[in-house]
Amino acid sequence: MLLGCKEPIPKLDVSLDERSLIPLPRKITPNGQTFVIYEKTKVYTSTDTAAVAIAKQLIDKIQTAYGYELPLLEEGYATDAYGIYIGLTSNTVGNPNREAYHLKSTSQQLRLTAHHSSGLSRGIQTLYQLLPDSIVNNITATGPSASVLGVPGVEIKDYPNFAYRGAMLDVARHFFTVAQVKRFIDLMGQYKLNVLHLHLADDQGWRIHIKSWPKLTQIGGSSSVGDQGGGFFTQDDYKEIINYAMARDITIIPEIDMPGHTNAALASYPELNCDGIAPKLYTGMKVGFSSLCVQKERTYEFLDDVIGEIAALTPGPYFHIGGDESHATSKKDYIYFIERVQNIVKAHGKRVIGWEDIAAAPLTEGTIIQHWTNPDTASLGIRKGAKVILSPAAKTYLDMKYDKDSRIGLTWAGTTAIDSAYLWKPLEVLTTVSKAHILGIESPLWTETVVTTSDMDYLVFPRLIAHAELGWSKSSDLSWPSFKQRLQQHLQRLDMMGVDYYKAPQLFTASNASPQK
Ligand code: TNX
């Protein structure tokens, strides 16, 4: 106890075993002490805006869950009084990675430091996992909860295995609102994922307003799979999503899939069709039947406008051009098209990402391919100099069923149980690849069978959590029994957040309440 304190700091003894850390940090050294947070605990920050922002996030989170506001002090960071310290420092993790962070708790202090703001964004998530599960509560919804919080004493030095750790949300087959996307960002961010790829246009719907081509959303935004209503993001909506993600250090990657997967655009503007006739809106689930008219100059004026407007709204470095399953485009046309579009994207200052299919075309410098189904095609792209994002369908496609009885989902790539989603080696997916070629992992949620938030939760969780650990944690530390145990412990937190995850029988043993499908 510090001399001079008017009242004693409450006492609490919390063991690290009571907390579940996912993804597993690199280096964890418990010290047997407990840091106690209660309403008088001061939060000190370095003068950096990033440190202040993270401190405010922590204070907000505690206020939302427990109803009291910790005092924030932008002075006194250099002292060593009892308190929480959040700051940018020189590198104390021993790894230059921008997401590296150092977290240390003793009975006297809780310190979160990093040499880059991204490290603070990742580290704060670890701190939330070191707090009781009730940290996810909303006090106005749940009533008063415990107000003295114990953080187990530990030193953590942590940084990611892969730089790119993403999820994809298809808002084209079914539309999801800004609120649903924000909720998704919050959930994925808890597991240190740092990219959200938005699949913004497909045969069944065009979901982002383009001022120079307004019928894209007026007409093309009105449909969905099964004719279950449409929807689209205004440019302000899109900016709102971007800003929300940015505050959590998550990059948004917009995708406009082309030249195939474009029926919604073709239905909106007859001039984009080679025969000048607009097809009907499409509400089925087939792929590979539509194509922009590759030979028409108007097509490239259209794309220059669309890519230009979206690129101008997007602070992240990437623009995804899709390029998959263009079965209605001749190979010659496809190659010509992909070459031209890469140049348009570059002219708007963005780096191109495309599904692995684009490896059939010459790839401009810096183009990234996203592997999904054919390792040979992906390897061809790598030989052409591309880096790769790994989304092997049989392991990472969140829209695959867990087993044949899953209530929604597809099965074209097989079924993917939770252990299967965890048990694969990113370095072994493509034989011709070394770690230097791999940017990271992305888990796509295609939404042909996904309509509600509950549907989304069911397919995404807990598999996305498994992928997050594969992307972040040291590969030699990965262990299914350890992950399974931590995940089982973490389920209560998902329950408290109202996440309607799949209650996989394999996660419920005799000692752990029984599941229902
Ligand atoms: C394949 S993955 C597609 C999507 C579908 C998905 C369904 C990819 C590049 N194309 O158009 O939605 O399968 O799993």
Number of strands: 16
Structural class: alpha/beta
User: Helix segment count?
Assistant: 15
Quaternary state reads: single chain
List of distinct ligands in this structure = ligand TNX
Q: Uncertain segments of ≥5 residues (pLDDT<50)?
A: 511-517
Q: What's the CATH H-level superfamily name of the largest domain?
A: Glycosidases
Question: What does the average pLDDT come to?
Answer: 95
| CATH hierarchy class name of the largest domain | Alpha Beta
Description:
With 517 residues, this protein is an alpha/beta fold. It has 2 domains: 16-158, Chitobiase/beta-hexosaminidase domain 2-like (Chitobiase, domain 2, 2-Layer Sandwich), CATH 3.30.379; 164-507, Alpha-Beta Barrel (TIM Barrel). It has 15 helices and 16 strands. It has helices at residues 49-66, 117-130, 139-142, 178-189, 215-218, 235-247, 263-268, 297-313, 331-347, 375-383, 393-396, 418-422, 453-460, 463-472, 480-496, and strands at 27-37, 43-45, 72-73, 83-88, 101-105, 109-114, 149-158, 164-170, 195-202, 205-206, 251-258, 318-322, 351-355, 368-371, 387-390, 438-445. An 8-stranded parallel β-barrel has the order 8-9-11-12-13-14-15-16, surrounded by 7 helices. It has a 7-stranded mixed β-sheet with strand order 1-7-5-6-4-2-3, covered by helices on one side. Strand 8, helix 4 (178-189) and strand 9 (195-202) form a beta-alpha-beta unit. The longest helix is centred in the first third of the chain and has 18 residues, at 49-66. The protein is elongated, with a radius of gyration of 24 Å. Ligand TNX is lined by residues 287, 324-325, 355, 372, 397, 399, 410, 446, 448.
